[in-house]
């Protein structure tokens, strides 16, 4: 087991190493749609690339999510492993709409031997997700 300080240091090292190994400006929060953001997720047991829909207005969230559902088949052609979750619960208890691709390999942010495979997954998956977003940005924004 790691102390909180050790775990925090490993998390920081994981993200710093990722940024230095693969320097690139990602779309992430720059979708130009308030409440719609791409995220890299990593913890002790799993990693994923996500598109989170979480505006303060639940009706707006639902409209964006339904817009993404209308593109589901097209997205599945690019990312067959994609999961649509209209009731994803964050650790803080907040419920959001999340569209994500989980890393299916062995991973733990506490195990440096698993980092490289995760980084490669991040690069490949986020790139495909961003390309899809740019291709259908006008459709997604049209709610």
Global geometry? globular
Spans of at least 5 consecutive residues whose pLDDT stays below 50 are: none
- Span between N and C termini? 47 Å
Q: Tell me how many strands there are.
A: 4
Give, in spatial order, the strands making up the sheet with the most strands: 1-2-4-3
Percent of residues in beta strands? 15-25%
What proportion of the residues is helical, as a percent range? Answer: 40-55%
> Which structural class is indicated by helix and strand composition?
alpha+beta
Given the structure, what is the number of helices?
Answer: 4
| Main pleated sheet | 4 strands, antiparallel
**Mean pLDDT rating:** 95
SSE pattern: HEEHHEEH
**Total domain count:** 1
Radius of gyration: 16 Å
Protein name: DUF4268 domain-containing protein
InterPro entries: DUF4268 (IPR025364)
Organism: Polaribacter aquimarinus
Domain DUF4268: 10-136
